[in-house]
Amino acid sequence: MTKSITFPSHIAALKPYIPGLPISDLARRTGLAEQSIAKLASNENPLGPSPKAFQALADAQLDISLYPDNDCATLVQAIADAHNVPADWIVVGAGSESLLATTVATVLEVGSKTAYAQYSFQAYVNAAQRIGALPIVVPSPDFIVDLDGLEAALAQEPGLVYIANPGNPTGTCVSPEALERFLRRVPSHIAVLLDEAYYEFLPQGQRLDSMALVRELPNLLVTRTFSKAYGLAGLRVGYGIAQPALAEMLRRARAPFTVTEAAQRAAAAALGDHAFLERTVQHNEDAKALLVHGLRERGLRVLESHTNFVLVQVGNGADLAKRLEPHGLIVRPVGSYGLADWVRISIGTDAQIERLVHALQVELP
Ligand SMILES: *Cc1c(COP(=O)(O)O)cnc(C)c1O
Predict the structure, then answer these.
(1) Computed over its alpha carbons, how large is the radius of gyration of the chain?
(2) How far is the CA of 119 from the centre of ligand 1 (A)?
(3) For ligand 1, is residue 238 a contact (CB within 6 Å)?
(4) Which tens digits make up the pLDDT trace of 43-71?
(5) Is the CB–ligand 1 distance for residue 197 below 6 Å?
(6) Where are the alpha helices (DSSP H) in 162-273?
(7) N or C: which end of the chain has fewer CB within 10 A?
(8) Ligand 1 contacts CB of residue 321 (under 6 A)
(9) Does residue 333 have a pLDDT over 80?
(10) Alpha helix (H) residue ranges in the chain
(11) Model confidence over 159-176: pLDDT tens digits?
(12) Taking residues 125-143, what's their average pLDDT?
C-alpha cells in the first residue's frame, strides 16, 4: 500500500482564499471584451496607479536579471521620511498581506492564541491558521470591532491581537479615542497588529495618530499598503512600522527578495505623489456617495463605509454576483465570512457605478 502525505490538521482545515474574479476569467466565459468589464471586487483604485509611479518604472530601465535590493533601502528611507521615524523602524513586504503572515510567524507558534474581531480580513485569519495558532474570535454584532470584547479576550493571554481599522469586509471603523484607549490597555508582552490598509480613506476626524502611538508602545505594529489608495495592487508592496526590537525580528523572519525592484521604485515614487492621493480620496468620497445613494434608493441596507468599498445586504450575495456577471460587473460575495446575504462592492468610476445601479434595477426589482 502506498502511503500518502498526512498534512498537519491546521493545514488540512484551511479554507481557500477566494479572490475577486479576474477580468480575464469573466471575459473568457462570457465573450465580453475585457475593457467592457468592471471589476468592483478587490478594492483597487479606479483611477489606476499614480502617474509618478508609472513614470518611475519607465525611467528605471530595470535589469531584471538582477535580484532586487533585499533591504529596500531607497523605499525604506522614503517611508521613514514620510512618517518621521528612523529607517530601522520599517519593514517592507510583498503586499501587507505578507507582513500579516510574517507577523504571525514571528510572534506566534503552534498552539498559541490570537484574538481578533468577527468578520476580520480572511488573509489574516488564514495566515494565523497556517502556523497553527488558535483563534479567539470576538463577536461583532454591529459589524464594528468590539474593543471591550477584545479587551476581555486579553485575559486568555493571546500572543497577538489583530485589528483592521477600517475593517474589510465591513468597511466600518472605531473612534480614534476608543482605539487609543484600547491600545494603551494591552499589556506590553502581547503584540498588536493594527492593519491600516484603508487609512488614507479615513476622514481627518476619524484618524488615530498611530505613528505617535508606535513611538510609545513597543508591542504595536502598524501596517499600511500601496495596494489601495496608491493604486499599486499588482506590484505587491506594503510596509509595517514598529519600534526597532519588533521591526528587526520581523525583518529577520521575512522571506528574502520578495519585494521586486519594480515594486520598490514605483512605491517610492507613489509615496511622494500627494496630488494623486488627494484626487483618489476625493473621487472616492464623491463616487461612494453616488453608489450609496443608488443602493439605498433600492431599499438596500448599506453599512457606513470609511473605505473604498461598501458592504450591502442584498438577499443572496453569491446569486446576485452571478447575475451581475452577464452585465460585465464583478462584485464580491462574502459568504466565506458568514455574510451570505451581503456583497462587497468596490467604489469604481462614476460610469461603472451608474452601470451597477442600472443593473441592480434589472436584477433586484
Ligand atoms: C487589501 C487589504 C490588505 C492589503 O493587501 P496587500 O495588497 O497585501 O497589501 C491588508 N489588509 C486589509 C484589511 C485589506 O483589505
Answers:
(1) 21
(2) 14
(3) yes
(4) 999 999 999 999 999 999 999 999 999 99
(5) yes
(6) 176-185, 210-216, 244-253, 261-271
(7) N
(8) no
(9) yes
(10) 9-12, 23-30, 51-60, 73-83, 96-107, 122-130, 147-153, 176-185, 210-216, 244-253, 261-271, 274-297, 317-324, 350-363
(11) 999 999 999 999 999 999
(12) 97
145 lines ligand 1 (CB under 6 A): no
Question: Is the CB–ligand 1 distance for residue 194 below 6 Å?
Answer: no
Q: Given CA atoms 336, 338, 340, 344 in this order, what sign does their dihedral have? A: negative
Which residue's alpha carbon is at the smallest distance from atom 4 of ligand 1? 96
Contacts of 346 (CB under 8 A, 6+ apart): 39, 40, 41, 42, 43, 44, 46, 308, 309, 332
Residue count (the chain): 365
- Ligand 1 mean position, distance from CA 357 (Å): 26
Q: Which residues contact 83 (CB under 8 A, 6 or more apart)?
A: 211, 241
The pTM of this model reads 0.97
Backbone dihedral angles phi then psi of residue 181, each to the nearest 5 degrees: -60, -45
Average pLDDT over residues 129-145: 97
Cβ–ligand 1 contact at 225 (below 6 Å)? yes
The mean pLDDT value for 287-314 works out to: 97
Q: 11-20, 108-117, 309-318: lowest mean pLDDT where?
A: 11-20
Any ligand 1 atom below 6 A from CB of 95: yes
Q: What is the DSSP letter of 82?
A: H
Closest approach atom of ligand 1 to CA 98 = 8
Given a contact cutoff of 8 angstroms between Cβ atoms, the answer to whether 136 and 115 are in contact is yes
C-alpha cell at 7: 498534512
Query: Residue 188 and residue 204: Cα distance in Å, rounded?
Result: 28
Residue 225 CA to ligand 1 center (angstroms) comes to 7
Which among 240, 237, 258, 238 is positioned nearest to 249, based on CA atoms?
240
